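sry for the spam today, last one i promise. struct tokens for design, 204 residues
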């Protein structure tokens, strides 16, 4: 998939106010400071599209970016630690989970995992919550800049996940430094979009 255009369109803190448009949506979420903004900028090849920061909790709204005027990339607040009050974090996770579990336009959620660290309970808990709610998702390992150092963590995460799941979801391994995994992610979105178009045509 070639990215011809990537435009920020709107932000909301209430999923009910999100645009009632037909474009399919692909959400990106992960633990705070997982490299989400860097990945979004890498995917779209727009350096400043998503705001990057060393401060956890930079994303505080449901942010919509219209890609190629065909589908929406949705940047969600991170879960876990953030430099803000506990009440703020609770508000973020509430409207985020409402969006994920109730938004009809959502086709897939990419859950970002830092490949440099061992499996974290907070990530596993969130993945299991997605499964309980039946929300389609994939796992994206980020910051895989030095594969020899991250391979063991990735394999351990897979092993740990299989303690809860019969089979693994679709997995991508990415690096915003080397652009690794970019084409795989975009091809996957393209494939899901194609399936969606076929389904609509069948109904007609």
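last one done:
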């Amino acid at each position: 998939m070639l990215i011809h255009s990537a435009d920020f369109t709107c932000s909301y803190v209430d999923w009910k106010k999100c645009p009632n448009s037909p474009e399919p949506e692909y959400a990106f979420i992960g633990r705070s400071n997982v490299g989400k903004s860097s990945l979004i900028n890498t995917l779209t090849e727009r350096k400043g599209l998503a705001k990057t920061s060393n401060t956890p909790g930079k994303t505080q709204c449901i942010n919509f970016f219209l890609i190629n005027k065909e589908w929406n990339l949705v940047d969600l607040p991170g879960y876990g630690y953030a430099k803000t009050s506990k009440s703020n974090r609770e508000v973020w996770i509430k409207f985020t989970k409402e969006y994920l579990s109730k938004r009809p336009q959502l086709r897939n959620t990419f859950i970002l995992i830092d490949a440099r660290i061992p499996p974290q309970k907070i990530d596993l808990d969130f993945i299991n919550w997605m499964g309980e709610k039946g929300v389609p998702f994939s796992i994206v390992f980020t910051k895989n800049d030095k594969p020899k150092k991250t391979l063991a963590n990735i394999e351990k995460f897979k092993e740990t996940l299989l303690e809860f799941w019969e089979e693994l979801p679709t997995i991508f391994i990415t690096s915003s430094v080397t652009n690794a995994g970019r084409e795989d992610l975009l091809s996957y979105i393209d494939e899901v979009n194609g399936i969606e178009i076929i389904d609509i045509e069948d109904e007609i």
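The helical segments are 36-44, 86-102, 121-133, 147-161, 182-203. ok im logging off now
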